[in-house]
Amino acid sequence: MKATIERATLLKGLSHVQSVVERRNTIPILSNVLIEASGEGSIRLMATDLDLQVDETVAAAVDQPGTTTVSAHTLFDIARKLPEGSQVELAAAEGRLSIRAGRYNSSLPTLPRDDFPVIAEGELPTTFELPAETLKQIIDKTRFAISTEETRYYLNGIFLHTADDGGQPVLKAAATDGHRLARVTVPRPDGAEAMPDVIVPRKCVGELRKLLDEVDGSVGVSLSGSKIRFDLGQAILTSKLIDGTFPDYSRVIPTGNDKLLKLDPRAFEEGVDRVSTIASEKTRAVKMAVDRDKITLSVTSPENGAAVEEVPGEYAAPGLEIGFNSRYLLDILGQIEGDTVEVHLADAAAPTLIRENDKAPALYVLMPMRV
Questions:
Q1: Which of 7, 122, 129, 266 gives 218 a disulfide partner, CB atoms 3.0 to 4.6 angstroms apart?
Q2: What is the pLDDT of residue 283?
Q3: Nearest to 182 by CA among 206, 218, 211, 155
Q4: β-strand 42-48 against 218-223: which pairing, if any?
């Protein structure tokens, strides 16, 4: 194999595929990136961790078609340090890959192409398109609530399913860690009618979000009950899905919270952030005392002292004191884009509903804390 590629093109392609590769691997081939030079003026770069695979095609001048695999992180680090604007010549022969750029020359050991595993997609009967902006919104507004508890593996991703919402066909995305829930509702795309309920793993969500920053227009989504593929133009991301049952989260979305508090999300967020500076690392608890048009945020920490701040808001129901994990509250407020946030309260022990308004695509449920 022999090909010449512009350094910026190689670096961009490698940055997309190498982040899939785990730093510590017991299987040597999984540390490698597959480089496939075809005769059509392009190179295919591919990496996998057996659960997730990124496959990207980049422009290159191919002198001699061929395929090899080489350490993904090493090649990425070399490309990163080469001078800007340089042309990089890649040549593979007899178990080595030589890399030349200007006066730089190196040689890396390779492993045979035949050892490189490829995720078998099988049939992907459900196919639809989603605007890249919609996918970004789905990810950004839910992924902070994905559980990191490995024992509850079925919560380690974003749950996607279709539903009928007041006669409107919709696609819903939800994530929860048992303390908070985030859900986004978007119109159901054409082709998603018979879509199975699926849980997209956290790592796939993270890699997809990085790739979406460079996509304009739409993303092709194909899936079965066990695999999902995202077609992002030059890059294709394929992932296994989490084999588990996501809990019926609709049961925890409160419908009878009749105490409505309306606030400026930025003032609320900044107030919570300021008082929580002294909150203890373990609980991160912030107390919210709600009275007529007055909200008092307070934190008391045995080791760090106390902090209080008043935040303006609209509230006409009976007074209430409730505690929240400040980190969880800040994660939610960071996703509120409008200039008003609605906090629907019931009592100090019941789940609280947070949203911009009843037309907003996203809603959040937060469990209170004892403070």
A1: 129
A2: 81
A3: 155
A4: unpaired
